[in-house]
Design brief:
Layout (H helix, E strand, L loop, with lengths): L11 H13 L3 H14 L4 H14 L3 H14 L4 H13 L3 H14 L5 H13 L3 H14 L3 H13 L7
Helix pairs in contact: 1-2, 1-3, 2-3, 3-4, 3-5, 4-5, 5-6, 5-7, 6-7, 7-8, 8-9
Length: about 170
């Protein structure tokens, strides 16, 4: 059992777990604080780099720093589907959908199981590239894998009106 002041228990993984816990309850300030502590202890911890970078990318904040972190994670694990998805997503959020597409396709290729989020992201990218048929196909795959009201509404809107792309 640990004792007060026993610093050998304060590992990068503990801070990673705290960061991910705070992120899940949408306390982003504390999540960032603990992810940064994690990365201060282990700067090449790919999961930490990716998690913080994706958290920022998904919220559309700190995008240049998010991109750097995620690129570092991808260099550490070039076939990690989650890391590739994150890189595609941050590039999409940086309004670079053409650059994002190859990473998203690699994420799908390297994913062990079909993943709804990957297909949703792919649909958004295709929509930004003005490829509505491919976007609808990807979104349809996403809702087939995991029902999602937001994606279903997007699908319905694009099917009936050929509406403009969803915004990042």
């Amino acid at each position: 059992m640990g004792r007060a002041g026993d610093t050998n228990l304060l590992t990068h993984f503990l801070y990673f777990q705290l960061g991910s816990t705070y992120e899940r309850i949408q306390n982003y300030d504390d999540a960032e604080k603990y992810f940064r502590k994690c990365l201060a202890l282990s700067p090449d911890f790919g999961a930490g780099l990716n998690y913080l970078g994706y958290m920022w990318a998904d919220r559309g904040v700190h995008l240049p720093e998010a991109r750097e972190m995620i690129e570092k994670a991808v260099k550490l694990e070039p076939k990690n589907a989650a890391f590739l998805d994150s890189l595609g997503w941050v590039l999409f959020k940086l309004e670079k959908p053409r650059d994002a597409l190859p990473y998203m396709l690699q994420a799908l290729e390297n994913s062990r199981e079909p993943d709804s989020t990957l297909y949703d992201h792919l649909g958004d990218i295709y929509s930004s590239l003005h490829e509505p048929a491919k976007a609808r196909e990807a979104w349809q795959k996403a809702v087939t894998l995991e029902p999602n009201e937001k994606i279903q509404k997007t699908l319905e809107a694009t099917t009936t009106s050929q509406s403009a792309p969803r915004q990042p």
